[in-house]
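PROTEIN DATA CARD
Card holder: Protein phosphatase 1 regulatory subunit 42
Chain length: 237
Origin: Trichechus manatus latirostris
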Amino acid sequence: MVRLTVDLIAKNSSFKPRREEVISQYLKKITHINFSDKNIDAIENLSPCKNLSVLYLYDNRISQITNLNFATNLTHLYLQNNCISCIENLRSLKKLEKLYLGGNYIAVIEGLEGLEELRELHVESQRLPLGEKLLFDPRTLHSLAKSLSILNISNNNIDDIRDLEMLENLNQLIAVDNQLLHVKDLEFLLSKLMKLWKMDLNGNPVCLKPKYRDRLILVSKSLGTHLYYIVFLEKAT
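Structure generated from the sequence above:
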């Protein structure tokens, strides 16, 4: 077992504190921590790192998001490719702007209430049981309605994205390799998301529908402004 502790951070840092500088002063100055791919399975108390703004912990074995309540200055959190099954203990991260959780075991997007600065959410390729799909808690969607601009939900067996209509400031939606089938559902979504300019539907069944792009482009044109530039990507045949 490898736990991320302040001692481990100090030991592995390339920057060493001056002789007259105690370890607590040194830790307080740290803004970036990178322990990706280090077999980390737990996050211990890192509260001395009060100015931490970017935390890289991807490609590890972390099963629970813990001990980050202190990180009120954190803006970027990278937790992709771990063993996380529940989004939790993040509500203190009021300055968080980008959250990366792809490649975990998350079944429901929840627990993000109060993160009013969150602009990017990446939850692609969750390792779900066969036949299950990624779901969205309405409370979290409502909380992110005004802040979220980029959402990546690729490869999650999703067959309906109409619930995303409340994300009024969304401008990029990446939904590659899902089970989206109905053009009408996408037309409905486009009629609600007035700021959306890019939508990647690569690998969805809807891409096989005759003239599906024409129908969606027509909807986007009717809404005017920058929606004209929505991108529809397909796999090369």
